[in-house]
Amino acid sequence: MSTMSNAPASTAPAHDTVRAWLEEADRVLIAAGAGLSAAAGYDYGDTERFRELLPALYRLGLRSRYLLGAPLPKDMMWGYWAVHIDDIRFSPEPNPLYRRLRELVGDRDHWVMTSNVDALFSRNGFEADRVHTPQGDYGRLQCTVPCTRDTWSSRPFLDTVLAAYDRDTGRVTDPRALPRCPRCGADVFPNVRVGPEFVDDSYLPAGRQLVRWLDAAPADSALLVLEIGAGFSTPGVIRRPMENLVRQTPRARLVRINPAHSDVPADLGTRALSVPLGADRLLDGLDP
Questions:
Q1: Parallel, antiparallel or unpaired: strands 252-257 and 27-32
Q2: Which of 25, 65, 95, 275 is deepest in the core (most CB within 10 A)?
Q3: Which GO terms describe its molecular function (predicted)?
Q4: What are the contacts of 213-216 at 24+ separation with CB within 8 A?
């Protein structure tokens, strides 16, 4: 017997339900995965964007930004990281989808928890001290040893790499531009969770504050969890915790927005809504 329930055949009732649940909510927790940023224009699997940004790697046969573990020499790998992070983490333009999401939440008491490491929430109107990013942030680098619990802004390192980057070859032409730990001289890496060496110290306070926010809710407070674009790459970060949160919170509801993996646990019954859409299409349907 299946323990998951499917979305309704028509998405129109889903839009109506989301509107109604938002109106009834005292608090909103946005829980977001990679699918949200993909809908916002930062799709790691976008082959055409990959070719535009990284033509040398494309000519080598690579087709997407999922390059962790790719057998590239260090100068090419840092060329990739510099271009990729500069594009997704430091792009100065406001993002329309994230801005619309912020408008949707309005003045409701809210928090954000996201597995994304692109800071698109805090760069588009959400308060940075109400955004929990347990997987890290491309805006920081760390020692790979690590010899210290300190992390450093990635911007100066990336600027040095980009100044020595040859787009035609995909290589960093000056070995001195390759980032090193300023403390011990070892390799550095983006401060994101890829293994046990991840330095998560700076992300823990926000996690504790989020727990306090949830615990401090009055017993009759209505919580709406808007889970957007969280699939099965790292289900233990967003997807499973959100299901358990709603199970344990009597007046909580879950809206799961995902074009491919929108199924919700059957035991949540009418407190969970499956929306088989991308965030962009959902917000289109919610616009007045």
A1: unpaired
A2: 275
A3: histone deacetylase activity, NAD-dependent; NAD+ binding
A4: 213/27, 213/111, 214/29, 214/245, 214/249
Q: Which amino acid is at 100?
A: R
Q: Per this entry, what is the length of the chain? A: 288
Are 183 and 143 in contact by the 8 Å Cβ rule? The answer is yes
Query: Which DSSP category does 220 fall into?
Result: T
Q: Radius of gyration of the chain from Cα atoms?
A: 20
User: Model's pTM, two decimal places?
Assistant: 0.93
Amino acid at 264: V
